[in-house]
Amino acid sequence: MTEPQETHKASPSPRAHPGAGGEEAFPPSETLWRESWRVFKRDRLAVLGAWVLALLLVTALLGKALTEWVVVFDPAAVRLPEKFLPPLSLASSVDVPPDDRPLGGIYLLGTDELGRDVFARMLQGSFVSLSIGFIAVGIALVIGIVLGGLSGFYGNVKLGVITVDTLIMRLTDVMLCFPTFFLILTVVALLPPSIYNIMVVIGLTGWMGTARFVRAEFLALRKLDFVTAATSIGAPDRRVIFSHMVPNAMAPVLVSATIGVATAILTESGLSFLGFGVQPPYATWGNILADGKGFIFDAPWLFFIPGFAIVIVVLAFNVVGEGLREAINPKLRRR
Amino acid sequence: MRAFILRSVFQRLVLLLIVSIMAHSVIHLAPGEPSAVDPSNPRMKPEDIAKIRAAFHLDDPLYMQYAYWMRDLMSGELKSFKDSQPVLGKIWRRFLNSLPLFLCATLLVWTLAFPVGIQAAIRRGAVYDRTTTVVAYTLISVPGFFLAYLVILWVVNTFGVPVIGLKTFGMEHADPLFRTMDRVWHLVIPSLIFASGGVAVLSRYVRSQMLEVIGHDYVRTARAKGATEDTVIYRHVLRNALLPFVTMFGLLLPGLIGGSVIVEQIFAWPGLGRLGYEAILARDFPVILTLNFIAAVLTLAGTFLSDILYAVVDPRIRTGLQGDA
Q1: How many angstroms separate the CA of residue A289 from the nearest CA in chain B?
Q2: For residue A318, which residues of chain B lie inside 8 Å, CB to CB?
Q3: Fewer CB atoms inside 10 Å of the end CB: C or N, chain A?
Q4: Inter-chain contact B19–A262, Cβ cutoff 8 Å?
Q5: Is B211 on the interface with A (CB under 8 A)?
Q6: pLDDT of res. B227
């Protein structure tokens, strides 16, 4: 069974539609996105990953709301008599004032070395970890798409002695020369500790792949008929780029963005391990894990809960990313 | 070919210059100075700080500092801010420690990833493929230090493999054979952890590369003319699938510095990554800058090597170059 060849513009497929009963010789073919979605759905692991991510998104938003405004979920409430309680233990009614008790009087995931509710901290951390991933990748995407697009579309424009394309691609090469993690570590360690610095630095060091993809896509797209057509009816460059080329170049970018979020979460946990991650009072899964490693024998849940949470979420991002890659790559489809 | 080599060497030298200038400015423009590392020390009088700043040229303009750094680096007289030891000597000693770890890990990656990836591609969709897929994704998704801690907990309790440092303390006078064995024994767990991510990534890449080639027409032709499955896979598919990996040999080099910070920190391995981390903590700019510089040199040398290897292995590119030059 051969798949219909993927086209960038909806073009009539010669294959007769099975349900059309032969009346319609050229039914509207599947759009690119719908076809990709059909391939994506076949990969059960990726679909599972997508569900995990949807759940995570809800958790993160709910977590943000609950930890901000609902007292029972206060992640910063310190209850020294209740420290190192294992998961599912009951809060004592004697030592803890009623205001500080967790929901239902149960520490779902136990308490840490200051008697803080690990469940509340994980809820807060899910939002912070995710926003680090999303903002860092967002920064990388914007830089990558702008630079890649510039060098793909205006690559031949001369700036003095060198072309725009040479300039941007050499800049990409320069950035690729830095050992990424070491550079991030250096900059984060030298700058004053702040969560925004971490997001920005991860973003600024992660755009090179996107720039290259977008450039390659743009170079290929420029030669296609629909771009020529758009230019020939007098559409301004802005319109050609943003409404015709960018949407068609997004597929590989989407894949690298999904995997980029996973990498950013891992990078943050690595920085936390070395002591340069997000500083208190923010809780992230990375720094809960890094703090928990000191109590691995006395309070293993402080180590294993954030650890496995990170593994599951990063795994979900990676699996969804790979599923997308498979879905948009006609060469890798089952023949 | 010679014109191509000359041109790419020149391009890379220019890149290196830009990289070193950028690294230098990033580090010097960031707040936090070497002279301010120990502000609470009562013995540090303002005149001492002034003396230190003068000795390290910290009061000169940035481009002069860059010139001093380059001059000292090239003449080999660059001194660390922290202990006034020559930087190159320090880095060389740490490099000798990192090298066995790096070599072992690389060897593990390349010997494990290929069989796993090839098998997964041949048995696409079967249990083996799905299992290795899940395992590989999991290995990619685990924070390095989390995995290391899990392995340490399990291994130390079960097998008694040492996980701290290069060698057992107090073994200096033992028989050379025992000392060698001791060092090898210490290498096992760190290099496994170091290699885990690489095996996962590379085996996935091998798999997709194989799948890409298996779909080509000449593979069907090979099958049609009655070649055995082994001949088809190993002579026709694998040979062509191998091409991109030749280039990856070159891209491995920079992993020596960047890839090892966390692993060396966990296993108290006195290598390059840990040297970099210590230098960052101490604001030891010459060491940070020189490590960065060496990493850039390694990256550029790596891409250069892979370009050359590609031309050597793939005749299509070689003829293209000759036509070009």
Answers
A1: 8
A2: 137, 140-141
A3: N
A4: no
A5: yes
A6: 86
Shortest CA gap A184–chain B (Å): 10
**Residues A151, A168: Cα–Cα separation, whole Å:** 6
CATH architecture of the domain formed by B100-285: Orthogonal Bundle (1.10)
R_g (Cα) of chain B, nearest Å: 25
Q: Please, what's the largest Cα pairwise distance for chain B?
A: 86
* Dihedral sign computed on CA atoms, order B94, B97, B100, B101: negative
A-side interface with B, Cβ within 8 Å? 45, 170, 173-174, 176-183, 185-187, 189-192, 262, 266, 269-270, 273-274, 286, 289-290, 293, 296, 303, 307, 310-311, 314-315, 317-319, 322, 331-332, 335
Does any CB of chain A come closer than 8 Å to the CB of residue B281?
yes
Token pair recorded at residue B160: 């008694």
Nearest to B31 among A179, A191, A310 (CB): A191
Q: What are phi and psi of B79, to 5 degrees?
A: -110, 145
pLDDT at B321: 57
User: What is the interface pTM, i.e. ipTM, of the complex?
Assistant: 0.85
Q: Assess contact for A209 and A145: CB atoms under 8 A.
A: no
Q: Alpha-carbon distance B278 to A129, whole Å?
A: 27
CA distance B151 to B78: 40
**Are residues B281 and A296, on separate chains, in Cβ contact within 8 Å?**
no
Kindly list the domain boundaries of chain B, sorted by start residue: 100-285
3-state SS, residue B142? coil
Residue type, A47: V
Residue ranges and CATH numbers for the domains of chain A are 34-76+116-332 (1.10.3720.10)
Interchain pair B292, A315: CB under 8 A? no
**Cis amide bond preceding A281, omega within 30:** yes
DSSP tally for chain A: helices H, then strands E:
12, 4
Q: How far apart are CA A308 and CA A292, in angstroms?
A: 13
Please list every residue in chain B whose beta carbon sits closer than 8 Å to the beta carbon of residue A178. Answer: 19, 23, 292, 295-296
By the CB < 8 Å criterion, does B320 face chain A? no
Nearest to B27 among A190, A289, A296 (CB): A190
